[in-house]
Amino acid sequence: MSKGYSIGLAGSFTVDPLTRLLGKDLSEKGFEKSDFQVAPYNQLIQLGMNPEGLLGAKTDILIVLWRIEDITPDAMNGGQATQDIDNLIEAIKTLRNNYSGTIIVSNPPYPSSPEFDVHDLEQPETGLQLYQSYLERWQNGIQDIHGIKQMNLAGLLDNEGHSTSHDARGWYLYKQPYTLNFWKSISAQLSRIVSAQTIAAKKCVVLDCDNTLWGGIIGEDGLGGIQIGQDFPGKAFADFQKYCLHLRSKGLFLAIASKNNEDDVFEVFDKHDAMVLKRDHISNWQVHWNSKVDSLQAIADELNIGTDALVFVDDNPKEITEVQERLPEVECLLVPEELAYLPSLLQNTGLFDIAELTDEDKKRADMMMAETKRKSASTQMSEEEFRKSLELKIDIFEAEEQHIGRVTQLINKTNQFNVTTVRRTQDEVEALSTDNDTLLIGMDIKDRFGEYGLVGVAIVQKETDEIWNIDSLMMSCRVLGRGAETSLINKIAEAVKSRNGKTLKGQYIETKKNALVKDLFENHGFTQDGDFWICDVDSVKAAPEEVDIRLRLAA
Amino acid sequence: MSDPLIDLFADVLEVDATSLNDESSPDNVEQWDSLAAMHLVAAIEEKFSTQLSTKEIMKMSSIGLARAALKDKGIDV
User: Fold this and answer.
1) In this structure, are A489 and A431 located in the same domain?
2) Which terminus has fewer CB within 10 Å in chain B: N or C?
3) Which residue among A195, A222, A241 closes a domain?
4) Residue A218 sits in the same domain as residue A160
5) CATH code of the domain in which B58 resides
6) Cβ within 8 Å of residue A452, ≥6 positions away
7) Contact B36, B12 (CB under 8 A)
8) Rounded to an integer, what distance in angstroms lies between the CA atom of residue A491 and that of residue A551?
9) Domain total for chain A?
10) Would you say A162 and A110 are in contact if contact means Cβ atoms under 8 Å apart?
11) What is the DSSP secondary structure assignment for residue A358, as one 8-state letter?
């Protein structure tokens, strides 16, 4: 018996069903009773900051499951959803710093909300694309965080089937979206991840030959008579060999235990073109007429591993039974009667799950990663190309009566991207809008995901004939990273110029929340002058070329 | 004589069948939490080969009421 764990569960939805199911799955895997702590649902950001507080106790393992449609109000709103995904990545980073145990986090499945209905004809270009970008965003963000174990919830749901795994009634009644059957799948997968932490993985696959690696009996049918190759059932044997080779590439040994004449077996490995496995792939050969138990023992001895690290595959139930009786620690798998299932025999067994990758494994993974990165570098978008792809349209204008409400709202609620944080009442704003020595400027943004509306405001006032002071400048954080701020400042300069002003003056007043704009003026060509920042209207940083910007000034 | 509905509830709630009766509800059975409610729905649907609506599920706030709701569906237990 392995010791039981204390397990924390958190999710963007109700994850309580796991307490029972995972407890059962783990005890079936030989763990003592696990205890569970469940965080209130959909409080993942808070969980990052204070995991123990939210779970109510210290835990060894923390499992986090989430869905896109739970963490963002409208998963079709790409900008917002991406931001929310970024926020969650940040929360997981924070969690990693605040939590000493093992963290297991799922990836997000294809959204189940109606807008993502796969039957919609435009889904391939809309929902699917958005989803893929979310998944990639998540993957890129999460893989940089050290020591996070991922659970492929998306893949699991694809495999089980979306329509049969969702329970709309459970969602509305208990805020839990899945059927009991799907919860069982989630639990089974999680129990594998958890037990991989402690249970030794298998190290060697021991294979029989006749009717296991190929169809027929080499001693009777001869090289030309055995079945291996492109046609069924030969293809099934070839695919099975391919999977064995895949396991070898993960660092497992392959060995042969066959009751045969050695020369016959070697002839197949050396001479049959359709053989995927070659002689070099096999680490130990036991081809003779002694018992399989002797063979397995010999393989373990020669490879210097325990017999408990062996997996044995044979088509003969008698051999399997004998091994099971005399070497119960060996995992035995019988070749299925339906050969179509042979290639997947070793898949999804959990036998080869390894919790911590060895240095060698990591090296290999690193090399593969480097290669992937090189390949993608050439296709990766620059920031300019990204903006271009957004088809960004920015409309900058002098605010009129119809805009006063929204402008006042922004003035009073924008905290982060706000250089002076001067608040004003609606009456004050209205007065400014008709003042001749004040430019009350609004900014409207839309891109191919939709309209963001009026998201930026500037109040620029004439101080002298030459100097115009930026009294206020603010923007909603939703539209950051698109060059909108540069467009706004550049067009402010243009507007001031049209009023015959020569110099822009700005000020940064620090608050607890506006560090974001600390360097804003410096980055846009302003120079410091005491508490203020000064810039000639012609020297302001140019607006990004790839953005379609319009400036409308009152006549 | 054993009562199949009581047995089902006892099985899912992991309590002794003799501790349950038609008056048993989430208020007086500690193990009957929202999670158990979900399992109960699945168990009832499986055992009586039926589908419960959210309305019916919400009505089943005691074993007696569950019995009545099933009776309305033509399932006599």
Assistant:
1) yes
2) N
3) A195
4) no
5) 1.10.1200.10
6) A79, A444, A445, A446, A476, A478, A479
7) yes
8) 7
9) 3
10) yes
11) -
Is A164 contained in some domain?
yes
Give one word for A33, left, alpha or beta, with left for phi > 0 and alpha for psi -120 to 50: beta
Residues A210 and A187 in one domain: no
Q: Does B49 touch chain A (CB under 8 A)?
A: no
| pTM of the predicted model over 0.80 | no
* A164 inside 8 A of chain B by CB: no
In three-state secondary structure terms, A75 is coil
Q: Do A111 and A71 contact (CB within 8 A), yes or no?
A: no
End-to-end CA distance of chain A: 83
**Is B52 at the interface with chain A, CB within 8 A?**
yes
Closest in B33, B39, B57 to A173, CB measured: B57
d(CA A133, CA A145): 19
Whether residues B38 and A19 touch (CB distance < 8 A) is answered with: no
Answer whether A479's CB lies under 8 Å from A487's CB. Answer: no
Structure confidence at residue A120 as a pLDDT band (50, 70, 90): confident
| Domain span including residue A449 | 385-552
Q: How far apart are the first and last CA of chain B?
A: 13
In a domain, A300, yes or no: yes
User: What is the value of ipTM here, to two decimals?
Assistant: 0.71
Assess whether pLDDT exceeds 60 at residue A86: yes
A176 touches chain B (CB under 8 A): yes
CB pairs under 8 A between A and B: 30
Is B77 inside any structural domain? Answer: no
**Under an 8 A CB cutoff, do A174 and B34 touch?**
yes
Percentage of chain A exceeding pLDDT 70: 92
Chain centre distance of CA A412: 36
Residues A382-429: tens digit of each pLDDT: 666 766 777 888 999 999 888 888 898 889 878 889 999 998 988 899
DSSP, collapsed to helix, strand or coil, labels residue A20 as: helix
Residue A374 lies in a domain: no
Q: What is the pLDDT of residues A491-550, one digit of tens each?
A: 999 999 999 999 999 999 998 778 889 999 999 999 999 999 999 999 999 998 888 999
Which residue is closest to B54 within chain A, CA to CA? A169
In a domain, A369, yes or no: no
Tokens of A342: 């042979």
Neighbour-count burial of A161, counting CB atoms closer than 10 A to its CB (0-12 exposed, 13-18 middle, 19+ buried): exposed
> With contact defined as beta carbons under 8 Å apart, do A127 and A74 qualify?
no
Record the tokens describing residue A98, joined without a space. Answer: 């605040």
Identify which of A32, A96, A33 has the alpha carbon closest to the alpha carbon of residue A64. Answer: A96
pLDDT computed for residue A379 by the predictor: 47
CA angle A486, A491, A492 (to 5 degrees): 100
| Cβ–Cβ contact B50 with A under 8 A | no
Helix (H, G, I), strand (E, B) or coil at A12: coil
CATH at A543:
3.40.630.30
* Cα(A204)–Cα(A329) distance, integer angstroms: 13
Domain holding B48, by residue range, is 4-72
Tell me the shortest Cα–Cα distance from B41 to chain A, in angstroms: 10
